[in-house]
Amino acid sequence: xxxxxxxxxxxxxxxxxxxxxxxxxxxxxxxxxxxxxxxxxxxxxxxxxxxxxxxxxxxxxxxxxxxxxxxxxxxxxxxxxxxxxxxxxxxxxxxxxxxxxxxxxxxxxxxxxxxxx
Length: 117
Description:
Elements: H1 11-23, E1 27-30, E2 35-40, E3 43-48, H2 61-72, H3 78-93, H4 104-112
Antiparallel strand pairs: 1-2, 2-3
C-alpha cells in the first residue's frame, strides 16, 4: 500500500508561511477527505476530515468548503472556519445524485450526532 504524503510536506510547508508573510491573510489547503490545512499568522494546523460511512457523492464538496470558509470568516477565526467547512462538506457528500447544500440545522445535526468533535 502506497503511503500518502502529509499535506504539509514539500510545497505546503514552504508556500503557506511565505504567502502569509506577503499577504497577511490565512491560507487554506484542501486535502479532499483528509481535511484542510490552515496557515494563519505563525500557526499551521491540520484540520482532519470527517469520516463518512456509506456511499458518498463528492461533487460540489470543494465548492461547499470554499463557501463555508468564506461565510464563516466574517464571524470566526480561520481555524474555526475550516472546522465548519468540514462539517458542511460532510453534509453535502451524503446527498447522493443531487446538488448538495448544507443548512445550519443539518450541520448542527452532524455535531449533535457525535460525527465531529
